TrEMBL record:
Location in or out of the cell: Cytoplasm; Nucleus
Name recorded for this polypeptide: Adenylate kinase isoenzyme 6 homolog
Gene name of the encoded protein: AAK6_1
Listed Pfam families: AAA_18 (PF13238)
Role noted for this protein: Broad-specificity nucleoside monophosphate (NMP) kinase that catalyzes the reversible transfer of the terminal phosphate group between nucleoside triphosphates and monophosphates. Has also ATPase activity. Involved in the late cytoplasmic maturation steps of the 40S ribosomal particles, specifically 18S rRNA maturation. While NMP activity is not required for ribosome maturation, ATPase activity is. Associates transiently with small ribosomal subunit protein uS11. ATP hydrolysis breaks the interaction with uS11.
A GO CC annotation given for this chain: nucleus
Protein's UniProt keywords contain Nucleus: yes
UniProt record similarity statement: Belongs to the adenylate kinase family. AK6 subfamily.
Quaternary state and interactors: Interacts with small ribosomal subunit protein uS11. Not a structural component of 43S pre-ribosomes, but transiently interacts with them by binding to uS11.
Organism expressing this protein natively: Quercus suber (Cork oak)
């Protein structure tokens, strides 16, 4: 127990966000392995727990129910020690995160990654435009205190390794706010 009677968090909560294809799951998985934090892939959680309002044929994805997702995560986030992996960030409560990481990828690299995943047409162009205009970085800066938001380059395996090492160091030096 902390001095104020609340339970001390078991570790920081980190949001890893960015346009699809920027390496969120790869980075989050490696970081979870290095730090023993819990990796929560929001897309998988939505499917497993039916936290959606149906399927969007145009975008070829589930329409997540943000309230259901937040309700599902509330206790885990209060406990701490989580890495949340999702391409959006503005609906999560600000109080949940100690660090918000926005992965950014060169448009040519991103185009190739998304094409290999089978993205075509508007789904492909919308995601490339999202990256060009830094939509998720802006969303993160508007949704969280600026001092916890970091943008990290994620073009190569070396970038990902460097990012994981840097974030692992940050987790090692993290101390909960009193």
């Amino acid at each position: 127990m902390a001095q104020n009677g609340s339970v001390r968090k078991r570790g920081p909560n980190i949001l890893v966000t960015g346009t699809p294809g920027t390496g969120k799951t790869t980075t989050s998985s490696a970081l979870a392995e290095a730090t023993q934090l819990r990796h929560i892939i929001i897309g998988d959680l939505v499917k497993e727990k039916n936290l959606h309002d149906g399927w969007d044929d145009k975008l070829d994805c589930y329409v997540i129910n943000e309230d259901l997702v937040c309700d599902e995560l509330e206790d885990l986030m209060e406990e701490g020690g989580n890495i949340v992996d999702y391409h959006g960030c503005d609906f999560f409560p600000e109080r949940w995160f100690d660090r918000v990481v926005v992965l950014q990828t060169d448009n040519t690299v991103l185009y190739d990654r998304l094409s290999r995943r089978g993205y075509t047409g508007s789904k492909l162009s919308n995601n490339i435009e999202c990256e060009i205009f830094q939509v998720l970085f802006q969303e993160a800066k508007e949704s969280y205190p600026e001092d916890i938001v970091v943008a990290l380059k994620s073009d190569t395996i070396e970038d990902i390794s460097r990012n994981v090492a840097s974030l692992t160091d940050w987790v090692g030096s993290w101390h909960p706010a009193s």
